[in-house]
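Page 47, continued from p. 46.
Same chain as before, 243 aa.
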Amino acid sequence: MWCKAVIALAMVTAASVAPAHAGVIFFSNDAASFTAAMAGATSLGVEDFEDSFLPANNVLGINDPLTQGVANAVYPAGLTAPLTVQSNLLGGAAINPSPRGIDGLAAVSAGFAGATSDVVVANNSGDSLDLMFLAPDQVVGVGFNSINFILPSNLNVQVYSTSNALLGSTSIVGDPSGANFLGIQATGGDAIGRINIFSTADGFEGVDNVQIFGPTAPEPTSIALMGLGLLGLAARRRVAAGA
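Result:
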């Protein structure tokens, strides 16, 4: 069941692109610049939460974690992207993962309280929401639409590395429609392991349309190009031998 009290806060105007610091660059309400920054990076998938079987205009508490390929309540095939979503009992000071477990999350379908599509949010008062990524995926970029029920409020976002070191923090407004966008780019060789989101109005924080990017894919090398390289090396050796 939902048990958070929602307190309306004034909306905060988000800057277009925040400067790089502590291993991350934030793109607040600037999806175009984030897309440009991810040019050449490997797309690992997009999670839009639309595989839910929940009827329209509904909400249902589900246990966390909700993860890729693992059945969970109204998500019989789990998530499609390499992502785990779970609540965090530590709220806005979530320096480590601490999932609630039973009814830690809520699945929300389009039409409920202003939702324009299916989403997943934290379900209990004082909890925050964790997005978690497997270290082997080496996630270097994440973009998402920010969600908060029932009214718009400020969301604090903290980004951690795969070793759980804090890479940076920012804030963005979340609302039921997911009108606001946040992109996150890891820098300096860091990879993103966890993103914690906390509603300062003690609302129901969540995300939608989560884009996940891995490192830049290496340029393909053809057998023909490899052959030309070997021929060139052999020619240089013959010239050197005759000198």
